[in-house]
Amino acid sequence: MKNRLCLLFVFLCCSILLFGQGKKQKYDIAAFLYPAYASDDPRLRPFWPMGIGEWETVMTMQKRNPGHYWDRKPLWGYINEADPSVMSMEIEQATKHGVNVFIFDWYWYDGRPFMETTLDNGFLKADNVDKMQFYLMWANHDVVNVWDTRLARVKEDNVIWTGKVDRQEFEKICKRNIEKYFKHPQYYKIDGKPVFMIYDIPQLIAGLGGVEETADALEWFKKETKKAGFPGLELQITMWSINMNYSGFDAGKTTNPENSFVKKLGFTSGTHYQFAHFTNVNEDYNVIMDAVEKEWERIDSSYDFTYYPHISVGWDNSPRTGVSAVVKNNTPENFEKALRRAKAFADRHPKQKPLITINSWNEWTETSYLMPCDMFGYGYLEAVKRVFVDLNELSNEK
């Protein structure tokens, strides 16, 4: 009798544990969020004078290019994502459909942050922010004419703001992000380490003065993160060709100088930001995905760090420039097939965090967004839900 009671107790404990695990989403689906769709941010007005951020580019596309094939509208309207009530709705829809992490494109120009209002005033003040996690992708590229449709087609080397920072500015940025964001309870961590992604490595190196100086600065950043009480820093590199090697780096006799370069700088993981960074996107989506999967496998066998698979919804930046390479046939159905390939990759790597990144939540002017539109409705979000949420719910029922 005593043995039966013990067995019953163990069974009940296991059942409770399994049920609790089933309720939790198994995969972390992280969508990049471009924070330019905000109203009343004065620093956005030089590029978008209407005061609604880059919605202006979406709204005026047909006026600027009458009869152009690109003619889309957001089902939620031209919303202000820096409004906490709006962001609360977005968090609700994102998490309902399986997106449980936002990766905020984060900018710093002219000695201060840029486009931070969506994160600070919208996301962090939303009443349901506890449902969603976030981390930062430092978009440290130069600002040129591309955002301003009045000048986007002008081909000139016109740097409005540089993404380069020196060591003093770098330390200011890092200390600020550790205090303001890393310590926030919703900041995304891997093994307790805050994740911080960097977009443009040549810019970082140029600002800091060389590879050795950059490696030293990043090592300092890791130490400062530890001083703040974390076990370390998950330093994530944006995977694309310009970031994976550097003319000033001597890798010696190593068989993989790119891997040595990344290790030298201290990056511990990587993911992509956009398919357009590494493959021909003027192609059918299924053909693109064949090339993408080959790239995943190449990275997996060539680098010592952890690679997290990436899926882009599409690519077409003609709203800004009028002309563009265009991903073809990127329907919600084909997007779902791509997500299943990313899921299979994650499943083949059970020792790493089941993180999958998506471009993006809202890159309307690059035509790579999950948000509902008048062309596909909620199709892309429903695809995420079918792959990552419905599966979880079926597991619960069993």
UniProtKB/TrEMBL annotation:
Give the signal peptide as a residue range, or say none if absent.
1-20
Which Gene3D superfamilies does this chain map to?
Answer: Glycosidases
Keyword terms, alphabetized = Signal
**PANTHER family named among the record's database cross-references:** GLYCOSYLTRANSFERASE, RHAMNAN SYNTHESIS F
Protein name, UniProt field: Glycosyltransferase WbsX
The species this protein was found in? Parabacteroides faecis
